[in-house]
Amino acid sequence: MAVDFENFDRFLDEARRGLDALGKEPPPEKELSGGEGTAADGRVSARVSPECRLTSLKVDPRVMRMGSQELCDLIMVAVNAALDDLRANLEARHEHVDVAGLTQALEGVQEESMGKMNAFMQEIGDLARRTENRG
To answer: Which residues neighbour 79 within 8 Å (Cβ) at sequence distance 6 or greater?
Structure first.
């Protein structure tokens, strides 16, 4: 049985292309801007950064006439809504990664490469035995 270098070389090329594709950075996404939330029909609004820092808090002057506890509650609702929005944005950003599929593909490449390498080593061993028997 002769070693099929053409198929082995093709297999290595396919494996290399597949691994190259895995190693490439995904296309640049627009920068994550954070999250936004509102309360009291938009009269209280909050923005948070991707680092979970409050970056903006706007309160309509009419809301300032409310009692301090009610105002604090509305601010808390707006900030929590902004944090929820940020969390949803982060989750949506990472949904496209199919870790299970990637793992399965790599296992397939590993199994196939081991099979090809074992066949290649078998051929080398057979060739070495034939060479020894001639000498």
So the answer is: 37, 46, 48, 54, 57
pTM reported for the whole predicted model: 0.51
Q: What pLDDT score does 18 carry? A: 67
HSE (side-chain half, CA atoms, 13 Å) at 8: 13
Match 């599929």 to its residue by tokens. 101
SS (H, E, C) 88-135: HHHHHHHCCCCHHHHHHHHHHHHHHHHHHHHHHHHHHHHHHHHHHHHC
**Of 7-21, 103-117, 121-135, which gets the smallest average pLDDT?**
7-21
Which are the contacts of 73, defined by CB distance < 8 A and separation ≥ 6?
none
Contact 98, 62 (CB under 8 A): no
- Dihedral (C-alpha) 98, 10, 3, 104: value to the nearest 10 degrees? 0
Residue 2: pLDDT over 60: no
- What DSSP element (H or E) covers 76? helix 68-94
- Checking if the pLDDT of 79 tops 90, the result is yes
